[in-house]
Amino acid sequence: MGTFAVQIAKHTGTEVTGVDATHKLDVVRSLGADHVIDYTQEDFTKNGQQYDLILDVHTCRSMFDYKRALSPAGTYAIVGGSMPRVYQALFLRLWASITRDRKKLRLVVEGPNKGLADLAALLETGNVVPVVDSVYPLSEVPAALRHFAEGRHKGKIVITMET
Question: In what order do the strands lie in the sheet with 70-78?
Fold first, then answer.
């Protein structure tokens, strides 16, 4: 999700700060990120920078940390995450409306295949390119899952169907 997000944001002319692990920073840079932060070395929510949009695909920090890193009218969007995180976002969104806080906390929920035609067009024109780490045949799914669980992959892990 993050590799697509960086490319789509850059395609629209957005300044992008990518936050990832050390071994993935070169990939993030190669996708066009203007700035990269190694989350194993620096907590971007505490560096004094403020962001107009934080797209969270891992939900590993406190939502209060993310909120602190938002610009006054910024938006925090979750893609995926656990149910407790969803409830926390809903609560904080309600709290923000009560306190008139302009910062927005969003859950990204789209219907099936919504936006797929737009993504297909970006892929067909080469404006978005999938980043593939490795390819496994269907018979090696356990090995692919182990590779994914190690967290060392730098892109998508593809499973091919055997014929």
Answer: 51-56, 70-78, 104-107
Set out the domains of the chain in order of their start, with CATH numbers.
2-129 (3.40.50.720), 131-163 (no CATH)
Residue 74: CA atoms inside 13 Å, Cβ hemisphere, count?
Answer: 16
Instruction: Give SS3 for 8.
Output: helix
Strands 132-137 and 156-160: parallel
Residue pLDDT, tens place only, 43-80: 999 999 999 999 988 777 877 888 889 998 888 888 76
